[in-house]
Sequence to fold (409 residues):
Amino acid sequence: MNVPELVMPGGDLEKVKVAALFGADAVYMGGPHFSLRAYAGNLDSEDMNEAIAFLQQRGKKAYITVNIIAKNRDLAALPAYLEELASLKPDALIVSDLGVMRLARRYAPDLPLTISTQANVCNYEAAAAFADLGAQRLVLARELDLDEIEEIRRKMNIELELFVHGAMCVAFSGRCLLSHYMTGRSANQGACAHPCRYSYALQEEKRPGQYFPIHEDPRGTYILNSRDLCLLRHLPRLIEMGIDAFKVEGRMKSPLYLASTAGVYRQAIERYTATGKAFEPDELETWLRELERTATRPFTSAFIDHDQEMQDVDKGSKGEKAEFCGIVKGFNPLGFLEVEQRANFGPGDTLELLLPGGEAKPLSLAILYNRDMEPMDRARHARQRVYIPSPEAVPEYSVLRRIVKQDEP
Ligand code: SF4
Fold:
């Protein structure tokens, strides 16, 4: 059976490593220029070099995004940048603009090209056009249903990649001027301020300053706020169809999100391709519960099966949540886990270590120490190294998280 690649985002060097160790087959990342997600902590050349080496040494792939919709003013710097990327020898470039693609063919001719979802490929003729131009892989538009995806698969002999998880736009992916209009930051240049997530109200012309809620709860009105995509249930059919790669959105998300999401999709892909049997309700429930713990919004299957509940008008997901507290940096010979702090935590919290492979181990924390082995009540300072007594080592880059209950609706 075809085993699709799991393609995870890598917003910085640490996230690249976490994504790879928790199950990604490939990681996509932006360089310092010409990448959507301009505010996502893209990698500089040195980090990108290290990230590519880290991935390739482990038999994994590194994809670099150059997927802005370029304007004339962007073109002059592209040749040198593309040559620089070519010298780093990633496994592919991800492009969406035809001009960038043409320049990539000329200045990075040995690098395979993937067409970004920003190119909105929705039919097999568009797919064929990109194949004719030399694309090796297409990331299909998110706005397709299962039958449409299947027809493109049947008619096209080109690698197909599909977003299966993560945030959605209310516009055709990225083809949206809302952010530019409201904040001056352009989504098409990687600078979206996500105004579709803002709270909106209705104002009647003759009542200036008086706002009528459109749908109200105590937090406000979120008519444009899309739920997050989750196609976990559809994985078996997509695998049977012959989709080559499953992609997860979220270069700006935390290492905890990457670890949790990569772990679940890795298990689901392996489980189905090993047995060919439909997912059992209880295993699906376990995976979905894990994914929901790191999600900020409820899930939708969106266009793929014409889900009618695509907007999160109630704002936010409920139930049990996992919060990112720190990342394991080592285990010292005296029997202490060395953890780099990312959020205030300490004794009394319900803590777990999420390990590469997907296992979550409860961590009972009675005391912790600073670098000088002085006891502390809590880890409070950003990126502080703290030491936790532990009977056993856990792998580097294991993620420390706190489980919290949120109010039920
Ligand atoms: S404002 Fe919302 S819909 Fe528009 S590009 Fe940004 S995330 Fe997408």
Notes: The mean pLDDT is 91.
